[in-house]
Amino acid sequence: MVSRFILTLGVAALVSACAGPSVQAPAPEPAASKEPEVREQTQSQGGASQSLLTEARQARLDGAFDKAEGLLLRAQRIDPRNGVVYLEMARLYATTGATEEARRIAERGLLYCTGSTCEELREVL
Asked: What is residue 63's three-state secondary structure?
């Protein structure tokens, strides 16, 4: 009799545990709410790469070619679809006499350029 009571009590506990409050995963946020965050990241990346481009141009003009290359590679990692980065890299390689590398970079930059940047990249070719 006692074992029957314990068995009944165990089944009741199991049933009540299964019927407890259900926990639901939070509903996913709509895609529209994430857009401003993406735009902010893009703008900050553009600002960072622009700063690196300015510094790299000056380094190239000063003859600090290794420094310019390092800055341009950082800019490329930050903003890999910025045609101006490729233009500056092509100019750097052309200045240092690495004409094949300059052409290769200019061709790649044509994938991402707009306006006058495209014309300047074509001049490197």
From this structure: coil
Contact 125, 106 (CB under 8 A): yes
Chain position carrying tokens 């045609």: 83
Token pair 């545990």 is found at 17
Tokens of 93: 């390689």
- Report d(CA 62, CA 36) in Å as an integer: 39
Q: What is the token pair recorded at 67?
A: 């420094």
Tokens of 100: 């094949």
Q: Which residues contact residue 112 at a Cβ distance below 8 angstroms, ignoring those fewer than 6 apart?
A: 81, 82, 83, 86
The tens digit of pLDDT for each residue in 18-55 reads: 554 444 444 444 444 333 333 333 344 567 789 999 99
State the residue for tokens 């290359």. 69
The H-assigned helical ranges of 19-82 are: 35-61, 65-78
Contact 94, 82 (CB under 8 A): no
- The whole-model pTM stands at 0.63
Element (H, E) at 103: helix 99-109
- Sign, Cα dihedral of 6, 7, 13, 16: negative
